[in-house]
Amino acid sequence: MKKLIECVPNFSEGIDSNKINSIVDAIKFIEGVTVLDVDSGRDTNRTVVTFVGEPFDVLEAAFLGIKRASELIDMTIHKGTHPRLGATDVCPIIPIQDVTMEECIKYSHQLAKRVGQDLNIPVYLYEKSAQKPDRENLAIIREGEFEGLSSKLKRANWKPDYGVEPLNKLAGATVIGCREFLIAYNINLNTKDKRLATDIAFEIRELGRSKRKKNPKSLNLLDGEIVRNKDGSPVKVPGMFKNIKAIGWYVEEYNRAQISINFTNYKISSLHHVFDAVCELANMRSIRVTGSELVGLIPKEAILASGKHYLNKQGRTLGVSENDVLECAIQSLGLNDVSTFKVSEKIIEYAIADKATKLMDLSGVNLISSISESSPAPGGGSVSAFAGALGAALLSMVAALTHEKKEFINKKKKMSDFGEQAQKYQRRLMELVDEDTAAFHNLMSANKLPSKTPLDKKNKAKKLFLANKLATDTPLETAKVSLEIIRMSIEIIKHGNPNSVTDGHVAAEVGLAGARGGCMNVLINLSSFEKIEDYDSKIVEKVDNILKESVQLHRKASSLTKKIISHNI
User: Fold this and answer.
1) Is 403 tagged catalytic?
2) Is the pLDDT of residue 214 over 70?
3) Angle (nearest 5°) at CA 469 between 467 and 473
4) What are phi and psi of 258, to 5 degrees?
5) 303, 347 in Cβ contact below 8 A?
6) Upper half-sphere CA count for residue 445 (Cβ side, 13 Å)
């Protein structure tokens, strides 16, 4: 598995397309990176570029982007609604795949040092990379913005982490650091009043607001007099949500006010809970939320959680396809309100996915045709996984049909849970269809490696062992998951709609095919190892147990099905 990191530099240019394209082209110059998103805003005068790749390539692309921005952007004339400190305002580095936070902190130092030394740009390290506690928060580093930078740099406590005089006076300063995945999210209001958006932003953000006395002549809390402590400092009221930063602004392009929100940890404060809270707060102020928009990308986990939240609120089953869950989230959050939300571009897992055509992307006719050709792959391993996936799909169907029936209202929760688990098994088995074929091709490639020298032989032996292990692990997982399909079928036959009992039984039938087929593919691949112990000394026993239990559970499913059918005749 390749090491992957994400970089999301924010450049202080959102109007001049030539400058924006030039900066993006500098990033794209590094072949190893993939630019996932370029999001520009005229009112903010800011462009957020999202790209991923292996660490060395990402660091090189980030440096080139920062360099190009420093050459093109004159901060002395820059105007925009978003707070900013420099031509490249902030450049976060985020671990994505097979990379630790500690590694990313080292990468952030490498990039910051190079930017400071080679470009004469002051660099502050923030978030996980911060060297001082008061520099963890980006908002604190940005205080005074670009206009206050010169005086800030003269203060001993604001000496940059990297970069010395002479200062690049046109480019300002840059903030670099390692952080968790940040979701940049805007909620749209049916008002032009920025003060109302700011009022709500203060309510939801973790930092909260200054406490104010209620002004009887105004509904806006910002009109009240600030309550102060004895030392004159304002009394603070904490906000509603942890790990939330928010401000209000007016967007001329959309002719409305927005609440601009950063989720610094979406696992603690979720999109849907914040969105629902803003809807309530807006109603209290006699305005309405019209929808929302995502700036950049979002992890699939975060938006699926929102989809499930709204399905629950609607009393619908969670045992539906991933596409249906996503569609529910998109519609409920109003993500198509001001721009089109494209799943393939806005969800990070889909954006970085291999775009090559997969077996499961083929039509049923073409998949069967592909299997029937005179090629060893796709073969029995992929077909076994496909059989199991069909069984999981049937279980999901019966669970959904039962969930919808009024006479089974007491089983709604159970059926929703069953359906959700069935969908999980279905997705995994569909992945295994392609993974089994890929494992075969990987094994063929390993067999073709040269073996002329001792070093070649050693390398080939290592690659062959790993390829054989993968080719055995894959059908073993197919067998294990298919066994669970048979087990679940018994519960569906017992508790599901009796009219769909045979569908539950067919799930057991194809589940048995998946389990048996997976097991047989494991056994035949064991001959590739010099000793079975090289793979797993107890593997034959484990396979026998799967086969035995599969047959027993299948027999039980058949008996239950016949009993229910006989009772209904």
Assistant:
1) no
2) yes
3) 120
4) -135, 155
5) yes
6) 10
82: annotated active-site residue: yes
Task: Measure CA 218 to chain center.
Answer: 42
Could you give the angle at the alpha carbon of 448 between the alpha carbons of 446 and 453, nearest 5°? 95
Q: Is 122 helix (H, G, I), strand (E, B) or coil?
A: coil
- Per the DSSP assignment, residues forming a β-bridge with 37 are 50
- Number of alpha carbons in the 13 Å side-chain half-sphere of residue 506: 13
Q: What is the pLDDT of residues 283-302, one digit of tens each?
A: 999 999 999 999 888 989 99
Q: What integer pLDDT is reported at residue 182 of this predicted model?
A: 87
DSSP three-state, residue 567: helix
Of 82, 109, 403, 554, which residue is the catalytic one?
82
Q: How confident is residue 328, by pLDDT bands cut at 50, 70 and 90?
A: very high
On the question of pLDDT at 569 being above 70, the answer is: no
From the list 57, 436, 503, 536, the catalytic residue is 436
Per the DSSP assignment, residues forming a β-bridge with 91 are 176
Q: Which two tokens stand for residue 93?
A: 């580095």
* 3-class DSSP state of 52: strand
And the tokens for 20? 């924006």
Work out the end-to-end distance of the chain between its first and last CA atoms, rounded to an integer number of angstroms: 56
State the maximum Cα–Cα separation within the chain, in Å, rounded to a whole number. 91
